[in-house]
Predict the 3D structure of the following.
Amino acid sequence: MASAFRTSALRTAASAFKTCARPALAAPKIAFLKPQPRIAAFHTSKSLSILPPGRQVIEGTINDAAPVPESNPSHGSYHWTFERLVSVGLIPLTIAPFALGSVSPVTDAVLGAAVVIHSYIGFESSIIDYIPGRKHPTAKKVFMWILKGSTVLVLVGLYEFETNDVGITEAVKRVWKA
Amino acid sequence: MFSNTTFRTASRLSSRQVSPLLKSTSVRATSSSFPAQTRSAGTTSENVTQDQAHSILAAQRKLRPISPHLSIYQPQLTWYLSILNRITGVALSGGIYVFALAYLAAPTFGLHLESATIAAAFGSLPVAAKVGIKAAVALPFTFHSWNGIRHLLWDTGKALDIKGVYRTGYVVLGLTTLSTVYLAFM
């Protein structure tokens, strides 16, 4: 309804007002006279210091090239293939309880172990991505050890749950149907 | 270049009288009549030890502009689904970790986290709360599952062009919606 009143001439005028009139009205004239302090030329976006700059790490001399890490298939292709195998394996393990209604305790335990391995890989990747070891070596080590320790405790906890309770699949089913 | 020429001309004429034309030129070129050479700290490479050079570089680095934050990027299906995959994965795994650790610690703190207790507590909730909680669990679970299959499809080298990425992205969103609604009302 309102669009019927918005002729092309009005739209042009409105957009002209938006682009020209607004900044002039919003910013006081004194802003154009005073030189604005800028850290870097051509840096036009507002600076938002979310975190303080971390430790500045300079390895070797200033002009050294970055070292290329030694290639090792267990850090690259084998690791990648193992991750995919776990991910692919999770598909039938997730579908089986839905398709069969219930699964054996062994299948349930395998599902639990695969989920924990998959979670461990995911958490590890997140730590590597968001806590760079070059800048924050101690924080990265601390987080990695927290992950390793909690993963062992989680495996113990799931073992307890599998042996003393009804198992993951059956528990989810009972809560979902409650 | 320009100020150098001015400087040379000005020094040649310095003993004599300065023409008004030159005066105005030199004013335009520099603020003072003789351009002063400035050198920043980083360029004095002589007589600087390795430690000093490092501290100068470290100080300079802190003044560099940081890369723009996420809010300047256009919202696109590609990176939205990518970060959602990680967020849902961390949320699901975090939930499993918290439950397993709490189950292990439950006897020490006198908590009851047996499946029967949880099922009884969940069963006593009103229907709206049940559907809401189920949807809140089913949404990240189904999204991460469908998007995981999408990732495995990419790993085989299929659907890796822009068209494929968008088509599979919309398929994942559709399947996530359907399966979340189904599981929430199950």
Summary: The helical segments of chain A are 8-26, 30-33, 77-100, 105-130, 137-164, 168-177. Residues 82-177 of chain A form a domain with the 3 helical TM bundles of succinate and fumarate reductases fold (CATH 1.20.1300.10).
